[in-house]
Design brief:
mainly alpha, 0% strand
């Protein structure tokens, strides 16, 4: 009887160890790489949008700003595509904070396919597609003054949404980190 009880305790301890190892593997193979990619994308968008905002305020030629956006939206496209593919595997109805934040960062994506709607939900914005493409469309308005004003509003809105999304990524990352700490 005591032998059976000791084996049960041994099995429970081993089961807990395996469970902890599995959580660590998920963190190392899924959470950390996604965080690293999202951090690069966020930094790139922040730099690009801040520069575009500065140029819009400085009355730089709209054609030059459009060209910068068109080139800039391509730089991290492979990283965005990779994250987007991973997120499509999840149930988008009730994403955890970490994944919801990454979707928000991806909403600054290269096209309408980069927005949250393409992933099944819209956690940060309801009025726009929330992409660099929106800014490009606004800047292409025939009325240059209206284009600059509209583009500046869109950049400010995008920066706001990106900051909210990034905070969710960071908060979710910390939550996931706590799960693997012994």
């Amino acid at each position: 009887m005591i032998d059976t009880f000791l084996k049960l305790i041994e099995w429970l301890i081993k089961s807990q160890q395996v469970h902890q190892e599995n959580k660590e593997k998920v963190f190392d193979r899924y959470v950390q790489p996604m965080y690293d990619e999202a951090e690069k994308i966020y930094g790139d968008y922040l730099k690009l949008l801040t520069d575009i905002k500065r140029k819009l305020k400085a009355d730089v030629d709209i054609a030059a700003i459009i060209e910068q956006l068109e080139i800039g939206r391509l730089e991290y496209k492979p990283a965005r595509d990779k994250l987007r593919a991973a997120l499509r595997q999840l149930d988008t109805e009730d994403l955890p904070t970490f994944e919801r934040g990454i979707v928000g960062v991806l909403c600054g994506g290269a096209s309408r396919l980069g927005n949250a709607r393409a992933l099944g939900f819209r956690p940060y914005s309801s009025a726009s597609r929330h992409t660099l493409l929106d800014i490009l469309c606004r800047l292409r308005d025939k009325d240059t003054e209206r284009a600059k004003e509209s583009g500046l509003r869109a950049v400010d809105q995008q920066l706001h949404y990106l900051d909210k999304a990034w905070q969710d990524v960071v908060d979710g990352y910390v939550e996931r980190q706590k799960e693997v700490l012994p």
